[in-house]
Amino acid sequence: MKEFKEFSQLTEAKGSIFDTKPKSTKDALDPEILIQGFGRMKYTQLKKMIARGFDDMAKRAKNGQDYDWRSLPVLMKQGNEMLEAVQDIEKEMDSPKYKRKITMLKRAGK
C-alpha cells in the first residue's frame, strides 16, 4: 500500500533565492531573495530586519504596557516565518548547484 506524506511535509518553502543567475560573486553571496508574504529583498536586509524585529519585541516586553503584550504574538509569528525563510535560503545556498555557481563566478573573476 502506498504511504502518503503528511501535510506538514508538503507545505511550500517560506523563502527562496529570486535571482538564480547572479552576475557577480557579491550578488551570489548576498542574493536577492523572495519571501512568501513579504516580498523581495537582499539576504543581508532580511537578517537585519529579523534582528531589528527581535530588538523591538524585547523593548515592548520591557515596556510592559497591555497593548505591547497583545502585539507580541503577532510579532513573534512574523519573526518565526522570517527565520524559516532564512533556513530555506541557507539550505538552498548550501546546495552543490549554488556552490558551483559561486565557484564559477570566482574563477571568472567577477
How would you describe this structure to a colleague?
This protein has 110 residues and is mainly alpha-helical. It has one domain. Helix content is 65%, strand content 10%. A three-stranded antiparallel β-sheet has the order 1-2-3. Helix 3 runs antiparallel to helix 4. The longest helix has 28 residues. The model has no long low-confidence stretch (mean pLDDT 83).
Following the backbone from N to C, one meets helices and strands in this order, namely HEHEEHHH
Shape: elongated
* Lateral strand order in the biggest sheet: 1-2-3
The biggest beta sheet reads:
3 strands, antiparallel
* Strand proportion: 5-15%
End-to-end Cα distance = 52 Å
User: Percent helix among the residues?
Assistant: 55-70%
* SS-derived structural category: mainly alpha
Radius of gyration from CA coordinates: 18 Å
Number of strands: 3
Model regions low in confidence, pLDDT < 50 over at least 5 residues: none
- Our count of helices gives 5
Can you give the mean pLDDT? 83
Quaternary structure annotation: single chain
Number of domain units: 1
